[in-house]
């Protein structure tokens, strides 16, 4: 713990941390020492980890990357935090992120952009950019992230680490600040698939406090890591390899797939015909849900409150106007519009129908093959400032990840190689609750 705290002091010019909980970390580390001495330790006891600042941590600032929550000390722990505490893990601090998890570059944070440890002029990806940068730079052993449309996998890909977005419902969302509730899912961001197995083991499981959490048994994720891949069928959706994919990224992905063939896998071309509808459907659904979720930030009960409001309307308007960033406001406006009377059928309902079509595409594909592979992102990490003024181009960087959230499937980003001296992640997508198989496949490659 002390080594990691020292490294944070020395190297966090990356801006990966919003809060470092040094005293708390040292106390927990001492308690963990005691557990180790008495033989009560498990694999996470005493391990220094860091939490995306979207998870509520009792008595510790939980900002969600927003000025709105800059003064917010969460009064309770998220279920995920409780689970790490029970395991005896040491929390080093809270990690930077795009405001309310809206973004693909970590440039939407109230606390400033995070730098990619592989290239300080490049973004780390987002929204879990602080998590990816911290793990890649050795500022935490592992971290948590959340993935609504790619926010675990895309930063993992850009920073050369392993990221796993579990099946929707596998990890409790209780105490995880909501962006788009029907898509949000927390998961591990680690250096290896083996570490991801250990961290997911701690995070996963039914939680009566989250009505969308699924009550099905959690397998032993470490147990399956060494299963042979002989005969594994891998589907490559032709839509994943078309226009828009940078040739240097495609080359890394193709080389990785060849390695799987050497391990005994069989390759098959498949199709996800409605993939091109994923981004528009996602931005209607995610914006609609966020406009409802973020209505709780009203300047009354907690969070930012404007100075000297003259009446209630003034309190709402100025508190929200002064504390939300530009991207968050854009999404609230889009979402409110899409949900308005008269527009609901045209936008929200239509987007939900498209969502069903996409889920059915994947269902059909996963009857033909065991897993699906492809790129995580269309290019390597782009420059800080490069896309921030062009939201459409920024949204396109999630083209391969977003459809997976619409379908609710589990998926991983696994370090596959480099292009332009920057990391490239391989995307592995599995059937519902196939996390054990995904970890096995990732581990065999590493
Ligand atoms: N980049 C996507 C968005 O801005 C996904 C973010 C996420 O997964 N939290 O919505």
UniProtKB/TrEMBL annotation:
Q: Name one GO cellular component term.
A: glutamyl-tRNA(Gln) amidotransferase complex
Top EC class of this enzyme: ligase
| Catalytic activity reported | L-glutamyl-tRNA(Gln) + L-glutamine + ATP + H2O = L-glutaminyl-tRNA(Gln) + L-glutamate + ADP + phosphate + H(+)
Q: Where is the active site?
A: 52 (charge relay system), 127 (charge relay system), 151 (acyl-ester intermediate)
Coiled-coil stretches noted in the UniProt entry, renumbered to this chain: none
Q: What is its EC number?
A: 6.3.5.7
UniProt-recorded name of the protein: Glutamyl-tRNA(Gln) amidotransferase subunit A
Give the organism the record lists. Crenothrix polyspora
> What lineage is this protein's organism placed in?
Bacteria, Pseudomonadati, Pseudomonadota, Gammaproteobacteria, Methylococcales
């Amino acid at each position: 713990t002390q080594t990691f705290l020292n490294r944070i002091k020395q190297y966090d010019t990356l801006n990966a941390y919003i809060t470092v909980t040094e005293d708390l970390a040292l106390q927990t580390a001492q308690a963990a020492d005691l557990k180790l001495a008495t033989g009560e330790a498990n694999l996470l006891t005493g391990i220094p980890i860091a939490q995306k600042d979207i998870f509520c941590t009792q008595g510790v600032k939980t900002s969600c990357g927003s000025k709105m929550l800059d003064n917010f000390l969460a009064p309770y722990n998220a279920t995920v935090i409780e689970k790490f505490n029970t395991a005896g893990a040491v929390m080093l601090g809270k990690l930077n992120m795009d405001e309310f998890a809206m973004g693909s570059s970590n440039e939407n944070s109230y606390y400033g952009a995070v730098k990619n440890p592989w290239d300080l002029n490049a973004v780390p990806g987002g929204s879990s950019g602080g998590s990816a940068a911290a793990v890649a730079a050795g500022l935490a052993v592992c971290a948590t992230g959340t993935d609504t449309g790619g926010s675990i996998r895309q930063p993992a890909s850009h920073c050369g680490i392993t990221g796993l977005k579990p099946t929707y419902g596998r990890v409790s969302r209780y105490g995880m600040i909501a962006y788009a509730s029907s898509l949000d899912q927390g998961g591990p961001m680690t250096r290896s698939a083996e570490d991801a197995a250990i961290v997911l083991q701690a995070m996963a499981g039914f939680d009566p406090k989250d009505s969308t959490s699924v009550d099905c048994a959690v397998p032993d994720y470490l147990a399956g890591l060494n299963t042979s891949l002989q005969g594994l069928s891998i589907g490559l959706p032709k839509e994943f390899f078309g226009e828009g994919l940078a040739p240097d990224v495609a080359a890394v992905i193709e080389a990785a797939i060849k390695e799987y063939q050497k391990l005994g896998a069989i390759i098959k071309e498949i199709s996800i015909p409605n993939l091109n509808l994923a981004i528009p459907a996602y931005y209607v659904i995610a914006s609609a849900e966020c406009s409802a979720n973020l209505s709780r930030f009203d300047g009354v009960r907690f969070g930012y409150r404007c100075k000297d409001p003259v009446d209630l309307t003034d309190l709402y308007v100025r508190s929200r106007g002064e504390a939300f960033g530009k991207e968050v406001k854009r999404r609230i406006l889009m979402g409110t519009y899409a949900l308005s009377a008269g527009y609901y059928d045209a936008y929200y309902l239509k987007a939900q129908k498209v969502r069903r079509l996409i889920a059915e595409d994947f269902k059909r594909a996963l009857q033909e093959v065991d897993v699906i592979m492809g790129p995580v992102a269309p290019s390597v990490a782009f420059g800080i400032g490069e896309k921030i003024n062009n939201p459409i181009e920024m949204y396109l960087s999630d083209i391969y990840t977003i459809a997976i959230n619409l379908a609710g499937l589990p998926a991983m980003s696994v370090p596959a190689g480099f292009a332009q001296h920057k990391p490239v992640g391989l995307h592995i997508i599995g059937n519902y609750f196939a996390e054990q198989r995904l970890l096995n496949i990732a581990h065999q490659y590493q």
